[in-house]
Amino acid sequence: MTILETERLLLRQFTLADAPFIFELLNTPTWLRFIGDRGVRSLEDAENYLRGGSIKSYEVNGFGFYAVIEKESQKMIGMCGLIKRDGLDDIDIGFAFLPDVIGKGYGTEAAQAMLKYSFNQLKIRRLVAIVNPDNDASISVIKKIGMQFEKLIILDEKKQNLMLFAIEKPNQN
Prior knowledge:
By secondary structure, this protein is α+β, with helices and mostly antiparallel strands. The protein has a single domain (2-124), classed as Gcn5-related N-acetyltransferase (GNAT) (Aminopeptidase, 3-Layer(aba) Sandwich), CATH 3.40.630. It contains 5 helices and 8 strands. The chain has helices at 19-26, 29-34, 43-61, 106-120, 136-144, and strands at 2-5, 9-13, 65-70, 75-83, 91-97, 126-131, 148-154, 161-168. A hairpin with a 3-residue loop joins strand 1 (2-5) and strand 2. Helix 1 (19-26) packs across helix 3.
């Protein structure tokens, strides 16, 4: 089900048929370096990742991560969406793309559309984004969509510092 359309992109819900793409994305060097190893070593692991992640989140929260598809080629190029993380008070916006499309503006385009969708359709008042301090490309996207750095946080047992950015829905007078 398509939930968003931009000039160059479609964002739709993931299905189990997307397991091959998830397997590829979660094993890219950029994902492993900046997001972390999720132990997805087979298509079955990728299906379980989708079942326990986005597909479950659609049912429980009414949102999740969405497949990002380039309109022109109809190729799945990344993911962008929302997640309710343990340890964060606010909904987290996130994104990840295949290495060959990074730097083409797709992340900013998808994240900007997701931000508007979050504020206008889902009526979320505040969004956060967490990012590895070494991930300059993601930090750039986060800043381009208007998010502001708030603080360093630690969310997991690895005790890694993460940058927390936030944005609040502008008041509509």
